Amino acid sequence: MDDVLVLFLVAVVLLAGIIVLPQFMVRRTIPSVIKIFRQHNALGARNARTMEELGFTFQTLMDKMWKPRDYKPRALQLLINANIVQMTPEGKLYLSEENLTATKWGKRQI
Questions:
Q1: CA distances from 20 to 25, 27, 29, 64 (A)
Q2: What is the pLDDT of residues 7-40, one digit of tens each?
Q3: Of 18, 47, 57, 97, which has the fewest CB atoms closer than 10 Å, so is most exposed?
Q4: pTM attached to this predicted model
Q5: What is the rounded CA–CA span in Å between residue 94 and residue 86?
């Protein structure tokens, strides 16, 4: 009985780590993504930049195998979904400071 309980607890901890850890890492990466937009002065539609100009690239399969996971593309997607990062008709991205101020990331200085 003890072995089953230990095995169950290990499975629960592993499952929680698989689900919770990536979400935590993405949320921790969001301030650095905002900082990248500010460093590149991509703060309006006139100064919008492409993903490549901003340095956002998706990892290849080999990169995923040998390098630490990059959470910036997922954090960027989260910011796009929250309408904090907006896209021009040409596909360029920019940070909307107005929408950012309404979030918890806009309330603190990054």
A1: 9, 11, 14, 19
A2: 999 988 888 888 888 889 999 999 999 999 999 9
A3: 18
A4: 0.79
A5: 6
d(CA 82, CA 76): 10
Fold of 29-107: Arc Repressor Mutant, subunit A (1.10.10)
Collapsing DSSP to helix, strand or coil, 87 comes out as: strand
Q: How many CB atoms lie within 10 A of CB 10?
A: 10
Q: How far apart are CA 79 and CA 97, in angstroms?
A: 12
Radius of gyration, CA atoms only, the chain:
18
One DSSP character per residue, 3-62 reads HHHHHHHHHHHHHHHHHHHHHHHHHHHHHHHHHHHHHTT--SGGG-B-HHHHT--PPPHH
**Are the C-beta atoms of 49 and 42 separated by less than 8 Å?**
yes
* pLDDT score of 72: 92
Q: Are 105 and 31 in contact (CB under 8 A)?
A: yes
The whole-number pLDDT of residue 86 equals 93
